[in-house]
Amino acid sequence: MRRVLDFLYDAAAWLAALAMIGVLLMVLLSIVSRQFGFHVPGTDAYAGYAMAAAGFLALAHTLKRNEHIRVTLILGRLQGRARHALEMWALSAGVLLAGLFAFYSVRLAWQSHAFHDISTSNDATPLWIPQIAMAVGTLILLVALLDEWVLELRGRRVTVDSEEALHNE
């Protein structure tokens, strides 16, 4: 099961990287088209869609690599049961919020498809297409948070306490 979950997180990260390349390509196409006097409609909208996809698809991978911003002022001073209880509380809140976010993201994409919503910009893209990335990203984040919750519950969760976070300029 661990391999499947790690593959899921890594696959989402690769898709996020491809979306970032999409942002680059759209920006470059916009620049080149202006320089050579032709217009490619929708480049700004597609760059935005790709940027949103990159952000949402990278959420789970970032969480699993302990790269999300955490406020550890209190947590860093706790040990044992108190630390475990605070971690469980924080992860439970995260699972709840990610579950709500995933539910409403999937619902938004579904409703956009059902109502035939299209972009108001000149590209007229059906909105459910870029919203799929948000829905998938939030679903994978929910899975990752549930994974962390179960690992913490079993006492198998590995957290890296960064000394770098304690040093400020």
Automatic annotation (TrEMBL):
Cellular localization per UniProt: Cell inner membrane
The keyword Ligase belongs to this UniProt entry's keyword annotation: no
UniProt keyword annotation of Acyltransferase present: no
Membrane topology: Multi-pass membrane protein
Membrane-spanning parts: 12-33, 45-63, 84-106, 126-146
Keywords from the named record: Cell inner membrane, Cell membrane, Membrane, Transmembrane, Transmembrane helix, Transport
Coarse class of the protein's main subcellular location: membrane
Parts forming coiled coils: none
Pfam families the record matches: DctQ
Tripartite ATP-independent periplasmic transporters DctQ component domain mapped to chain residues: 24-154
Family statement: Belongs to the TRAP transporter small permease family.
Its biological purpose: Part of the tripartite ATP-independent periplasmic (TRAP) transport system.
Record note on quaternary structure: The complex comprises the extracytoplasmic solute receptor protein and the two transmembrane proteins.
Name of protein: TRAP transporter small permease protein
Species this chain originates from: Ramlibacter pallidus
